[in-house]
Write a structure and sequence with these properties.
2 domains; alpha/beta; about 325 residues; Rossmann fold; 16 strands; 10 helices
Length: about 325
């Protein structure tokens, strides 16, 4: 019998329940996977609270790594015993075993551990599309990144440095500032005591930055807009503090003919070739040691309630995983 975290109603962390589940055999185009490690992402809380709707009852989680146990009819790219990782729907990664579509899987190189894969597949691929697809960054460019000491932040700053891109990062504490600097931030702003937009202007000779990467949402939207240079781009890729407010198009003109995009990872990994290209670049950097994936929090899978509380409280730094 397998086990999984499920929720029957939306709400706080307490709605998450550890349950026994029947997994069954894979159908056509499906595989059965035994998980070795499961990723914990802030996006998981969006499903739990109902911000992202899901039919109830539902499983939890969109990222894990493990071993293929069996394959269904028509599956040609994978076989039993293969090491794999994945991120994306359907929900259900918080489980010891599951059946899921084979076309969501990514082959995992032997050089990368299951824990590392679970800690970085979603965050790493997010970083990959942010840096390699959204805007044509050039060496010497300076960008603003909110939550620079978070899971995406620590990967982003390292990768940006490899590209010669300077990152101004925002964090909430001096401790997180030290972490962000150690991972490649050229400048760090502690937003709890500094005016971010004013400081960005000071650091850029009054010009602002060409791109702001904002995973926070509601509480940082105006700051992000105010930090942009003329014809700058706000990449609003997350809503940790809530959805961004309605956008006044005239204000974008007044602020300097600005652009805003609200991208989603799913649209950058839907094409198998593009997903393989982004994953390949990510895996190469990690395997070579150019990008370090630090797992700073580990939990047993049945301890999901505590894990979500830690995540939402802001106590987490970098990546967190569940072990199975």
């Amino acid at each position: 019998m397998a086990n999984a975290i499920r929720f029957h109603e939306t709400g706080g962390p307490e709605v998450l329940k550890w349950e026994s589940v029947e997994v069954g055999d894979p159908g056509a185009g499906e595989v059965r996977i035994r998980h070795e490690a499961v990723g914990l992402n802030f996006a998981d809380t969006y499903f739990r609270t109902g911000l992202y709707p899901a039919p109830l009852p539902a499983g939890m989680g969109v990222e894990a790594a493990g071993v293929v146990e069996s394959v269904g009819a028509g599956v040609t790219g994978f076989r039993a015993g293969d090491r794999v990782t994945y991120t994306g729907s359907p929900l259900g990664a918080y489980s010891t075993e599951r059946v899921m579509p084979a076309d969501h899987l990514i082959a995992l190189p032997d050089r990368i551990t299951f824990g590392t894969a679970a800690a970085m597949t979603m965050r790493g691929l997010t970083t990959a599309y942010l840096l390699r697809r959204i805007h044509p960054l050039q060496a010497g460019d300076t960008v603003l990144l909110h939550a620079a000491a978070g899971g995406v932040g620590l990967i982003f700053t390292q990768w940006a440095k490899l590209l010669g891109v300077n990152v101004i990062g925002t964090v909430s504490t001096d401790e997180k500032a030290a972490v962000a600097r150690a991972h490649g931030c050229s400048e760090v702003i502690v937003y709890t005591r500094e005016n971010v937009a004013e400081r960005v202007r000071e650091l850029t000779d009054g010009k602002g930055v060409p791109v702001v990467y904002d995973s926070i949402g509601a509480t940082t939207f105006q700051t992000s807009i105010d930090s942009l240079a003329r014809r700058g781009l706000l990449v609003a890729f997350g809503t940790a503090s809530g959805p961004v407010p309605p956008i006044d198009a005239m204000q974008l003109a007044v602020k300097g003919s600005l652009f805003v995009t609200r991208p989603a990872l799913a649209d950058y990994i839907a094409d198998p070739e593009e997903r393989a290209e982004l994953a390949g670049e990510l895996f190469d950097h990690v395997a070579a040691g150019r990008i370090a994936i630090e797992i700073n929090q580990q939990y047993a899978l049945d301890d999901a309630v505590r894990a979500h509380r830690d995540l939402e409280s802001g106590r987490s730094v970098g990546s967190s995983v569940f072990t199975c």
